[in-house]
Amino acid sequence: MKKRKPILTGFEFFLLRKILKIMKLTTILLLTTTMLVSANVYSQSTRLTLKFANITYGELFQEIEKQSEFRFAFSNSKLDPTGKIQINATEETLEQILNEALPTGITYEIIDRYVVILNASEKTMLTERQQKQQQTVSGKVTDESGQPLPGVTIVIKGTTRGAITNTDGNYSLTNVPYGATLIFSFVGMKTQEIPVSGRTNIDVIMAVETIGLEEVVAIGYGTVKKGDLTGSVEKVNASVFKNQNMTQITDMLAGTVAGFNTTQSTGAAGGGSLEVRGRNSLNASTEPMVVLDGSIYPGSIRDINPMDVESIDILKDASSAAVFGARAASGVILITTTKGGKGKPKITFSTQAGVTQVTNKYGPYDAQGYIGFRQDVQKIYHPDNPSFYYANPEQLPEGVTLEQWRSASSNPDADDTREWLSRLNFYDIEIENYLAGKTVDWFDEVFRTGVRQKYDLSVSGGTDNLSYYWSIDYQDNEGIVLGDDYSTIRSRLNFDFNPTKWLNVGLNTQFSQRDQSTVSASVDQMRYMSPYGSLFDENGDVVWYPNSFTVYSNPLINYYGQDRDNKINSFFSTLYANIKLPAGFNYKISYQPRFQFTKDYNYWSTKTIMGTTTHPGGFGQRSESTSFGWILDNIITWKKLIGFHNFDLTLLYSSEQNRYWASTLENESFTPNELLGYSGLQFGTNPAVNSNDTESTGDAAMARLNYAWKGRYLITASIRRDGYSAFGRENPRATFPALAVAWKLSEEDFFNVDPIYQLKLRTSWGKNGNRDIGAYSALARLQSTLYYDATNVQVGVSNSSLANYGLVWEKTESLNFGMDLGLFDNRLSMTADYYIMKTQDLLMNRKLPEITGYSSITSNLGELENRGFELTINSVNIRKQNFTWRSNLVFSLNRNKIIRLFGDYEEVEINGQIVKKELPDYSNEWFPGHAIDAIWNYKTLGIWQVDEESEAAVYTLKPGDWKAEDVDDNDKFEALTDKQFIGHREPRYRVGLRNEIDFLKNFTFLLFLRAELGHLAAFADARRYGGSDNYDRRNFTEYPYWTPGNPINDFPRLDANDGPYGGGLQIFKKAAFVRAQDVSLSYTIPYSIMQRYGIENMRIYGSARNLFYISDWPGWDPESLNGPMPKTYTLGLTFTL
Amino acid sequence: MKKVIKITILGMIIISGFISCNEEWLEPQPKSFYSPENVYVNKAGFESLIYTMRKDLIRPNVGWNNNLSQEFAASDLASLWSGLDWREQTPNSNRIYTLNRFFTNIYGYLKTANVVVSRIDDIEWESEDERNAILGEALWHRAYWYYWLVNSYGDVPFIGEEVTGPRLDFYTHSRWAILNKLQEDLEFAEQWLPESGGPGAVTKGAANHLLALVYLANCNFDKAIETATKVINGPYALMMQRFGKDKDDPVHDVIWDLHRPENFNLPENMETIMTFIHRFEAPSDAKIGTGSIILRNYNCAWFQAAVKDSQGKNGMVADGTLYWDSLGRGNANATIDGYYRYNIWSYGGQTWRNSQDLRRADKNWIDLHEIKYNNPKSVDYGKPVNLDYLINPKTDTVYNLYAMPFYITWVPDQEKQSVPSGGYADWYIYRLAGTYLIRAEAYYWNGQLAEAANDINQVRERANAIPVTPAEVDIDFIFDERARELFAEEQRHSELVRVSYIMAKLNKDGYSLDNFSEKNFFYDRVMRCNKVYEDQVTMLGRTSYMDPFNVLWAIPSNVITANTMGVINQNKGYVGDDKNVPPLETIE
């Protein structure tokens, strides 16, 4: 932080001091009230070393003024400035020195950097006056531009009494105790606590809330002030998202943090994938580790109520994450939940209600389009028939008579329409429905407007020795697809006690029940449904095959015929005790048990295909699983300030165990009937049982030292050694070191650039591990199968995986360079990071030629590199009365490269020289020197057109098929020579832009735009692959196709052939998008109104998520790519008592 | 303060406690799966491998569009209705067929046999007999799969032991080297396998039957005769009399009895050499799919809209007696051609219409005149189908309507409410009639035509067919006879390939190994017999087409590209064949 200027310059103070020296106490009191009072941060943080055998008080004070920013003044005190004393202080605070140095009867008062020497009676007077006196305090509240701020809430701390500013920004409060503290709060502004200190007039300038440097950030087994961070840590304050509908924590994170990538999920349960800084593993999980209230959290993120979250810290670089070593290679997300504050119980209730719909329609042909589609299909399948053969007899092409049309068939139906539909190969049911004018809109049957609701209640409060927070929420979401339902009840209890000065104990506990008994309609089957099919038969039963074609079943069969009960109960708790030890040591023991009980009961009745054809006579299944895991942490910390040297040491020993038990019971063919469903499994006649248990163990030891010199140079060093049972046979342990250095340039004396409020340079290096491959990956497994030998059932075994006992951790080594810059009193702040990550010993399922009988083996091979750049800019663009506009821009890019794979080389000739070149893994499409997400495929040049028939025939293709570049021009499409690198699957650039505008006193408008740019995604539909041979009996999704009459160049013919493309052809389309991800408007009801009802705060808001997007992607939403994406409208209400 | 110290000490004790016991702490504890170390330790473990191998026989022979049915669809007797154009059967894609997938599936089955071979001496056996019987069965399974492989794909990599680490350096072995190895293995297996072993077991007879085929493929005709003779002299006999479940139903005959899956494993059925077991009553995990699906694979798609009545209306519905009681929901995955339906039965002045051969008897087949309009709404309900009313007779008779060997395909579903596709059924792997035809072929190659005719006539006479004269025996007649006797049973395409190799090796009829992919017996016979190619039938926009190199199927390209440190050859004619290197000629 930049040095704060004294309020008076040295010379001014010199003059003042001359006067002060002869001033009376009343003058001093006046001084205290006119000066801006702030907490005695300076006096407590400044350490002085003074060693003098014989010194006068005057010389002492001068020496202190020399070493620090303190300035001394005297009242009419009895202190003789020439009185001699002896002083021997090392790194002590001013208070400590003065307490020691001043003679009895003389005392002092420190006001910011000003020290007034008083005698005891003056001090007593001052204190009594401060404590006893009650007075009326009034003043004016303005914003930083000097405009008055109406509607600011002022509360006397510890009471419920308060006032609110009027339209001119003025307020008045009666009977304010002398020593009271006033809390000034206003939406979007930093809340200020100002001690009255006897003043009657307090004018306050409210500052816009920016992420400040004093803010505390969690760093794993501890916290640090944001300004003192050495690593790359991003903090997300949950309050920013208070006006949005959130099912999951991930809803907050999508696009809001540079370098943190999530993709929104599409189901009712919400959620989404998580990834920090690009993919750093080929095969192990790249999901970041979640740490909840300081404890490693192995549970589902779904079980954490976003309303309970106070803040989320994302540890991106190796040094920050290194303390979590073994699993931190993919970054760490630290979630901090709300704790109770001091004071009377605070009750907050909020409710949200909303509706959800699909963002875009990518559905089957409607009734009219279906006929056109079928006409084109038939023309392709039967090229010999005249072109008018499939025309509607009522709309025959010019020059074609009905007689001609009829006689084109050797056996025409007497009814022209029936004849026509039968030429289109309509099934009977389709013909009858056509004639009856009956159609089904399958998109409407499968999709719906879902209703979402959420209710939250929390109570919090505390005393000096206790704080509590309890919350409960209920959420019920309907997804956009019929049958996709999700509901959850979550409750949290955070307790913290201080029974004695040296002991602190507490617990953070959460319980949740998720109901995921979803039986969704099939979006996939919807695509095949004929609009002239029937959903229900005449008895009202669901028709299995609506258009009689037995390959494609009714998308709603299971929705109507399957009974399901899927519940997940989870319990996670952190129980901790902190014990203060002498000499700055602290010992913490923390035990974190986690239980999860899952049941998934299903019954497929004989009305379903599953309950008849696949399993005769009804099929019931009960799956039950229990998991129990625990972690025990022992942590010793030591914090000590010695001179300019600040030490913060953390030592950890931790062990963990995870156990999982699963069993499944199945039965089929129920007699005498199936009425009992999954509750009567014993009445089936063909039972099956299965069990699957796993167990894994781990331990860890860690040491970390944070060191700071004069608050300018910051160093963090850590080392962690981890053990994990998956590697237990040969290499159970690995070590992960890290080091980070930061330099607060703006703290240096020589640094004096006016607009720069703070400037910090950071660099860090470290190694992290990834163990996420499954507890038994190193072992060879046998799979078993049942064999019936006509008399008995036997168990057969076969090898299913290869052993690799030498398996070790995957290690990511990363280097991070960062800069934090704050300008104009931090009104504009910027954080930039550049990183290089190298991952070695990749845990991967190395693909084997399938003739080995194995598809892969888990191995440690290769090296992967990620480089990236991240930028976050926060700014307050406009700050005027009644109008504030704040922006937050995040930008990130990540480039990755496979450096090495398996170490298999070939010798190739390049420019006449023999060069050793590493062999790629063609099966996985991994190429040394290229990105993991590089797309290696044929470069399509468009579609073969009619006049290119002979050129296409060279490749045994036809007009309407895909045309691609034949790199070596040998008239064959061969994977190894003709596939090229044509783009990337992951976005090249990610941008998020959040704009918040406060206006008309109580309104806040938010717009969050998000973009992912520069990437491609596979669009398999563009191959017309798999099943175009039955287009004559079913429907399909409506998207363009080539015909001689519609010679487009970006989609092939209906019956496209890609067989000649060696290694397979895939079509990629641009998937870049810009979306309005969140829009909201909120209104805070003025305190003056709510006060009457005893309500402290009340807010209503409306918001929309995924309102619109801009993209060239031809299918479903460009983010979800091959599935539908919901857009949600929400109304919400929150109030606090 | 004392308390503080106490708690601290306690904490330290806890910490040190965990540190001290941590080596065991991190030992992985498998819970719910077996590993090689705890299973392959005794005879029971090896028997478990044997059970897997026996079960593996089911999948390629059963289910929708199975590999056995594709053996017919790729032959002179039937075709691929939805893939008539063989240019679409590439190393990358088969459309709906699974020729590429089959290649890798077979190697999956071979893996289990190789585990037995590699680990056989890891345990103490009670006796040499015990060890060698297990080893013999594994070698038989390995030979069974390689025999199918080399006769479908030609030269392929030979893997003879358990793969225990990453291997990506495979090379192709010549088909002849592999056949020699199989011959050696089977000669060993034959000595140790039991005479009989219950349903599904591999016996001496099964080993000798396969060995005879391998000798034939190796042009070792004397040995083939000798080995086939061992089988014929063994505990087997052609079934000449009525037997089994319908024994007392006078409508049927012995040919019908022979083809009832319920009869395959009856002790009285002396003709069975080997079957696989696939029963409805087995627990569902012991079954594959929903049954044999044989109705769907071979029967025509008679119920479809193309089958019109005299008014041009749909004459058929997917319901009623045809649907449930005889034809099922046919899909013609292997589209039976006119050669098998008609031409092949012309002999001695008789044709399919009046042949005395029980295998083409009216009661055993469903001919077109027996397929009757079953749509109750049709004016022609109950009348035989009239081909003139078809929308497109040229193609519709290929797919929608044709005569079917009811006595073979009639495997009713055990579950009546499901779509009728063909229920669970045991199936023949080897039957004595097949052994006779092997020996007949060996005699033929040796020029012993009288002996050849005699063996063929054993089979023919049982079917009440007119005996053949030695002068009429040639390789085409032998393959016609195989078709008549072993439809839906033998590996048709593979057997034709085997003979193509024999003729090329013996330089018969102008064939040669040098230009095998350009000119071969398989292609010439298919073109001669299966008129679908000559007729240029177009279905689904695909016109029937086949090249001589389609004699061998493509090696899937993903296997070739994944094998980065070696070279697996592509068959000539397919894209990628220019990277081939000469195949390995020996197997150590």
Helix content of chain B: 40-55%
Protein chain pair with the most extensive contact, residues per chain: A-B, 123 and 114 residues
**Low-confidence parts of chain A:** 1-16, 18-25, 33-40
- Categorize the overall geometry of chain A: elongated
Could you tell me the strand content of chain B as a percent range? Answer: under 5%
Q: Cα distance, first to last residue of chain A?
A: 38 Å
Mean pLDDT of chain B: 91
Order of helices and strands of chain B: HHHHHEHHHHHHHEHHEHHHEHHHHHHEEH
Instruction: Indicate the multimeric state.
Output: heterodimer
Largest sheet of chain A: 22 strands, antiparallel, barrel
Class based on secondary structure composition and strand pairing of chain A: mainly beta
Radius of gyration of chain A: 36 Å
Question: Overview of this structure, please?
Answer:
The complex is a heterodimer of chains A (1137) and B (588). Chain A has 1137 residues and is mostly beta strands. Helix content of chain A is 12%, strand content 46%. Chain A has a 22-stranded antiparallel beta barrel. Chain A has a five-stranded mixed sheet with strand order 15-20-21-18-19. The longest helix of chain A is centred in the N-terminal third of the chain and has 15 residues, at 367-381. In chain B, helix 7 (128-153) packs parallel to helix 9. Chain B is globular and about 85 Å long. Chain B contains 24 helices and six strands. Classes of the chains: A mainly beta (1137), B mainly alpha (588). Chains A and B meet through helix 11, strand 27, helix 16, strand 30 and strand 31 of A and helix 1, helix 2, helix 3, helix 4 and helix 6 of B.
